[in-house]
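Listing S7. Sequence submitted for prediction.
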Amino acid sequence: MLFNLVLRRAFIYTPHMSASTHTPPTICALATAPLPAGVGIIRLSGAAAKVAADMLCPTFNSVAPRVAHYGQLVIDGVAIDRALLLHFPAPHSFTGEGVVEIQGHGSLFVLDKILDFLCTQPNVRRAEAGEFSRRAVENNKMDLTQAEGLADLIAAATSAQAKQAIRQLEGELGDTFNGWRTEILHLLAHVEAAIDFPDEELDILADAALEEKVTVFLNNISTATRTNLGERLRDGFKLAIIGRPNAGKSTLTNLLTGQDTAIVTPEAGTTRDVVTAALTIGDFPVQLADTAGLRDATETIEKIGIERAGATAETADLVIALTSAEDWQTYSGPTPEVLPYLQPERTLLLVSKMDETSLNVPDVWKKHDVLGVNLTSSGSLSGVLSALEKLITAAYAPAQEAATVTRARHRDALNNAHGALTRALDLYKNPRSDTSLAELLAQDLRDAAAAIGTITGHTSSEDVLDTVFSTFCVGK
């Protein structure tokens, strides 16, 4: 009863509920890569999908739904291909609309000719980027987080990325946030009831255990936003290589990338700017940054490069602090320049030129992974990669235990919800005497529910939808 009351009093716009009654256009697009191939697939979605397909393949007219039909495609009386056609009636399809898939040969000329013909049929046009997935969201076939998971799965380049995307596609992230939103709305129902019974306001709020529940929400949100591991798995973990000039940073960069990514010379200070490269370590994507040598410099350009090196190290997820064997002996550890950038459990201490001396590791540095390497030997690569994979795996482990925020918009929405709930908790602890406590609390809870709803699409504006689906390919 209370939940129904809050839904009546605090209606929140849901994009799935359209104010328009007109039939949206049927869309069509190439669902496979725009390259010559053995097979090319065209997808149609909308009320006119089956009729348009029947005009292309007349023998498809009487075929039952979900039954594959192999027939001739005819345009202006001329056969242009033979294809397999499938019809999925609404609502039992990917988009929730009537869908037809045409699986023909992968000639780009023929596929484009088919698309041109389909677009001559009434109320049929070419799809925009991500429009099929957008219609699936609008027709409640998936939520926004699942649609983003689908995009991530298509773009996945490692098994770890694919696993995260599948978890999101299967609704794990959306279920978590929908659960939080529903619980907040239930709490809002109690607060709304307190508005209707002002003489019993404090008793109703106390019965709702508002302070305890809001505290739990705040802790859950803080846990979800504490790290950026989900985003890093999508975009690449930032790995910075730092050290003095001529410590071997550029040599290490070339060893890791397998090509001449950075210039290597005996002259100190060769690297003046941050040199970046993408690579995969184990199952994880990595954005590698080779930085300028850290030292006291007088030349303006080199000083700028050193400042950028420091900034890169400060924002990196992982750091390789490279020290020559000679300097390691001198300082009984890494050189002073790298000390401000060492991160517990996120740093690999590499000692280069280990063919010149044996490695002694003082106890103070054993809290970090320490490895001696000869960077002129490709045999050192396996040890470095193994150590880095171990660090990244350990760093990513917390993302397996909590809701994994995979996009900046998720983080922004949760921060907004956290702000609204913080205001509600402060207000509850320090109520104002000149206004209704319940009315103010209700607004903060509405704001929190709305913010979380934008993650899954329950309260998304058109701008949010446009932003999400602009990153999709046209056929998806």
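Caption to Listing S7: primary sequence and predicted structure tokens for the chain studied. Confidence is low (pLDDT under 50) at residues 1-20. The domain at 232-399 is CATH 3.40.50.300 (Rossmann fold).
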